[in-house]
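User: Fold this, then the next.

Assistant: Folding the first:
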Amino acid sequence: MLDTKLNDEAARLAALGRYEILDTPPEPAFDRITQLVRSILGVPMSVVSLIDGDRQWFKSRTGIDATETPRDIAFCNHTIRDRMPLVVPDACSDQRFSSNPLVTGDPNIRSYAGVPLATPDGYNVGTLCAIDTVPREFDPGQIAILENLGALVVEQLELRRIAERDHLSGALTRRAFVAEMDKHIALFRRYARPASLLLFDIDHFKRVNDTHGHPAGDVVIREVAACCDRTKRPNDILGRLGGEEFGVLLPESNAAQAGAAAQRFCDAIAALEIAHIPPLRVTASFGIAEIGPDRISSDAWIAAADVALYAAKHGGRNRVAIAKTDAAQPD
């Protein structure tokens, strides 16, 4: 029977995209698995490889310096085309790989064993593989170990996805939001792509809790998040950073464009009538920082926006302030 999911590239890429993991920093949960592969199978190299449209990108790697390679030379690009493991005892004698630059040059792959990483809905988004620089056989027991560890990789992908959402607001958690910031920092470093960060606090939120109770405060959090979700562009990213503090990441936006967007958010929140007896109204204060050479870590970028947020709050609240390039004097 034809396995249609192995040939549906658009759906496979969509499945990979749902994990929102490409270009994120290394994570111990994945690194432990590649280290186990290296140790148990006795190989010098192991990677968790995710196959994007035109590249393979390594979520975890041991023994390999590169972070990605072109897809068309990736052994793992062959592995994802099947449900079964791919085993190559000697790449130099395999016509598919003998002239491959990963075989003839660094990292000098000679033998390979890879298992596909299949999502719960059946799409192979990548592989877990063991790589050696000498010809070798991988016995059935070793392949079974690799398959079991591959299942652990998929479990980690699923757990990571579930943990990315704040249960109350539906926005990204702080950890997931910072991971998105790191992706855009990487894009800025590599391609000088613009992006801006909005930080905002719900004004006088403690007063809401003290006057109406914490259940009312929870309703305010949910409604403000829903309002922002309706107001943002499809590619904008909303996160709850803690308590009543939120962040919005605006890709491809400079400070002026972010300022206009922040004012839309600010006005939408101020116009919101939140169902309660009596109905509740709240406002929010916004600080904006465009990415730049002095903001190429998530901490520095957040700190710059936080300076502007402080200025907005101390300027009367329910307003927008933009951090200058040096993040010292907000507009």
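Now the next one, as you asked:
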Amino acid sequence: MLGPSPLMAGDELPVAEARVRIHAALQPITDQETLALRQSLGRVLAADVISPIAVPAHDNSAMDGYALHGADLLADAPTVLRALPGVTVFAGTPLAQPVGRGQCVRIMTGAVMPEGLDTVVPIELCQVAADAAGDTVTLKPGVLKPGENRRKRGEDLALGQPALRAGHVLRPADLGLLASLGVAELQVFRRLKVALFSTGNELRTLGQPLEEGCIYDSNRFSLMGALERLGLEVLDLGLVADDPVALNATLDAALAQADVVLTSGGVSMGDADYTRDLLAARGEVGFWKVAMRPGRPFAFGPLHAAAGRTAWLFALPGNPVAALKAGSRWAHV
């Protein structure tokens, strides 16, 4: 139940109570669809995304330097190692040959750690000297601990672990994360569909001549922008004259497609009586007088179509500032 209509009774409805009533009446969208990753920005995940790989996928170097056996490090004397001659391990090209005790190998950031090696010394901490047999790498005591500068397989994200949870709104960084996991498609909730129109004989749309006493419709455009920024699907139904036949036809079109019907104008006490009667005949619409300025007159409730569909009406005041403020207030319930 939406409760009595404070507008008709002359009482003001506190904003907090209005939010509670709206929140209690609405149900979240449950319909789902599968989208390509590149189309999913701003959408809401309908299921957990489980990582199909470990991140990182293998032990790898966190530094440019030399990979070595941590057990070769001396605590109280310099550590001298022989580098594999002419070998550098790059990312994407694992080392095929073994690296023995007392040896090390030049390695770049992101490269797979050679088998048996567990530590990387940054190049700036090394003293490298060349001789006939190749390079020797000397480390001062205490500059490095065994296991340092190695990223372990799965330390960021383990295989089979949820990468993102259902209900998460996808941001640009999330798309990058999912692409790094090889995820090409996502299960998301479909977008809320909002049918939007403005009412009033004094309104003209862009491109029409402006007769004396008329104004251009601005509410539809500001509300459309606010809705699209929220990631909603907006169905622009244009302008509707102050005429019951026209309003009925527009409501029929809205109810056939939308989850929400958003209008501006026609809900104040001074507006045409047929508007309230027509809306009330289609559902349980409450005409409220909310304790906020601007945005005081407001109508909310379910509208029922002949085919059994129901959409929720949010009818905002016609004043442009009031319409945008009220629309922003109630869109985030």
